Amino acid sequence: MENTLNAWDVSHYGGPDVLVPVTRPISRPKAGQVLIRIRASAVSRADGMMRAGQPKFARLFLGLCRPRASLSGTCFSGDIVAVDEGVADFKVGDAVLGEAGMQFGANATHLCMDAQGSLVVKPNAVSYEEGATLCDGAMTSWHFLTRVTQVRPGEKILILGGAGSLGTAAVQFASALGAEVSATASARNHDLLRNLGADHAIDYRATDPLKRGMNYDIIFDTLGVATYGAAKPALAKGGRYLCPVLGLRLFRDMLLSSVFGGKRAKFAAAGMAPPAVHREELSEVIALMGEQKFAPVMDRTYPFSDLVEAHRYVEAGHKRGNVVIV
User: Fold this and answer.
1) Per the omega criterion (within 30 degrees of 0), is the bond before 274 cis?
2) Distances (CA, A) of 250 to 59, 121, 159, 199, 242
3) Are residues 152 and 88 in the same domain?
4) Under a CB-based contact definition with an 8 Å cutoff, are residues 74 and 132 in contact?
5) Which of 194, 229, 262, 324 has its CA 20 to 30 A from that of 122?
6) pLDDT tens-place string over residues 218-268
7) Contact at 8 Å (CB) between 220 and 242?
8) What pTM was computed for the model?
9) How many structural domains are present in the chain?
10) Which residues have a Cβ under 8 Å from the Cβ of 44 and sit 6 or more positions away?
């Protein structure tokens, strides 16, 4: 077994160039842990925000002056190469996928994880590249559409940012749950949205998707490009505005809308849910893949040595679906 791992260090907050390749000793599994040889890992918009320490109040959790956990990457897939003798749920050779969470370090060649963490066996039908993306866009969108709110058949949903990793997953999930799906994207991505199950593709550059009186039951703002105040006129009575990007304005709107009126603003830190919830949600998403109701949209794959370039591409804001490091 190798004695060293390759990883990417984030010693201070900033742009993609703060990422620096490092070599470190491999940690052997401690009590209840497994050692994973990473085969693929994701690069997401959330990864870029954490690298930059944005929004700034997130530094209360990430580290005030610099990242507390200095390695990059959260979502991964790979093979178990060593287990602690107390681990019963996994064995050497198992293919797995999961999320490192606040431990970080998924953009690496090896990772030690708690066997009771956000980790599940990867089915053979799911590629390593696909598996590495499931804890980002797929699990987050599934959490919002089934836990933060419950999409019901026949409801009208608008997905802002339909071509990203959360958006492409949300379009498929909302369609599978029986909703009437509208989604925004640039015109070049409209065929993609329709192929994923969107009933209506909206060019946000040409049309205001938040017109008064649209009567959407749900508006899922996957990128935080709008506000509850801007979305409220387009919501039906009792409608819900969902957003995974927390800011002070959204926090205020959540508090106020919970007290006044029937329309609601909602947020959840899906990645901070207990590992048992993650495992349950991942199993549900994988089941949808088996039923051919969901497939991750793959944009670009970069070699491990090009992580900085992958971050630059994601930060440019034009990706379609998911970006993966192999």
Assistant:
1) no
2) 18, 36, 17, 28, 10
3) no
4) no
5) 194
6) 999 999 999 999 999 999 999 999 999 988 899 999 999 988 878 999 999
7) yes
8) 0.94
9) 2
10) 74, 75, 136, 137, 165, 314, 322, 323
